[in-house]
Amino acid sequence: MAGKEWFGTDRTTLTWYPSIAADKCTQCGLCLLTCGAGVFGFSSSKKTYSVINPGNCTLGCTTCGKVCPEDAISFPEESRTFMHNIIKKGKIFTKVKQALQVRLEKFPDHELHGTGVVR
Fold first, then answer.
1. Taking the CB of the first residue and of the last residue of the chain, which one, N or C, has fewer CB atoms within 10 A?
2. For 25-43, how does the pLDDT look when each residue is reduced to its tens digit (9 = 90+)?
3. How far is Cα 73 from Cα 107, in angstroms, rounded to an integer?
4. Is residue 92 domain-resident?
5. CATH number of the domain to which 82 belongs
């Protein structure tokens, strides 16, 4: 995970990833199937699912926790609160606007409708 950044913030300092409560997990596999980021893995010897790539978890995503039928997956805090805090602390809006501008310059015919970022 070394070297990964999220809009200028070292991803290793952002503790957003799921935890699996082993006593609740029934090994249904929905977490692995619904996660597009490769956060989960399966141990065939132990017959268990686990978080193997926590730094791959998309910040603010809780899909795996929402689809878990046993409520066995949790996150460090509520996603909206977590995202609000890191966006404010890391001055992310400025960095996002800069990244968006770079992307828009690559596609000059693209039009944005509405007011864009709410201030």
1. C
2. 999 999 999 999 999 999 9
3. 40
4. yes
5. 3.30.70.20
Do residues 63 and 34 make contact, with C-beta atoms less than 8 angstroms apart?
yes
Residue 119: inside a domain, yes or no?
A: no
Q: Which residues are CB-contacts of 113 (< 8 A; sequence separation ≥ 6)?
A: none
DSSP 39-88: -EEEETTTTEEEES-GGGSPTT--HHHHH-TT--EE-SS-HHHHHHHHHH
pTM comes to 0.71
Which residues span the domain enclosing 63? 5-106
Domain count, the chain: 1
46 in a structural domain: yes
Task: Assess if residue 118 is contained within a domain.
Answer: no
CB atoms within 10 A of CB 1: 10
